[in-house]
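Morning, I've got a small favour to ask if you have a moment. I'm working through a protein record and want to make sense of it properly. The fold is given in discrete form, as structure tokens running alongside the sequence. Can you walk me through what the tokens say about the fold? Thanks so much in advance, here it is:
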Amino acid sequence: MTAEIDSAHAARMNAVYRHQKHIYDLSRKFFLLGRDGLVEGLDVPAGGSVLEVGCGTGRNLLLAAKRYPRADLHGLDISSEMLGIAERSLTGAGCSAGLHQGDACSFATGGLFAGRKFDRVFFSYALSMIPDWRKALNEARAVLAPGGSIHVVDFGQQERLPSWFRSALFSWLARFHVEPRADLFDALNGLTEIGDPKVQCDVLLRGYAWHGVVRSADVSAR
């Protein structure tokens, strides 16, 4: 399923991944840390619905399918190059998941998932590549079911690591249009509504990665 997208950003992402897509999973496992823990922590209820925003090659969806075989899985990405890899990977593994080309900044308000709600929505190293990343978080909040949760893992600010490491990493990431979000935790706290549980924010690996969870109140329990 496709929807209206930011064509300039889509072209930029396709240019980045046109060749990298073939080695993406092999290379990224060494520095996209915390992804497996995020999937494990989704704690999807039996038959629950899950949406990954920025699903890329489908690597995380494959892991989620193995961990939660009864879940209704969906992946969204703006890059047709990456979605092609995801479709082949999921089909080859015998996993069923809905794949959608769409913009992380308009998948709810733009109508792609009009009327749909998800028990879990997650971003794995995606917000640092989305220009209007706060808008993407608001879109996730708009499709979150009561009692559901939004999960994020991404680059942190390297706050407990040597300054030279932070400088070198950030310079290298910028070459691929990646910008770690210094106010990520503030943005997650801004998603809460009256009655929502407290946001969970964790600093991983001395600040190399940040992990956050926003839980929506279960209206049926009120």
Q: What stands out?
A: The first helix runs from residue 7 to 20.
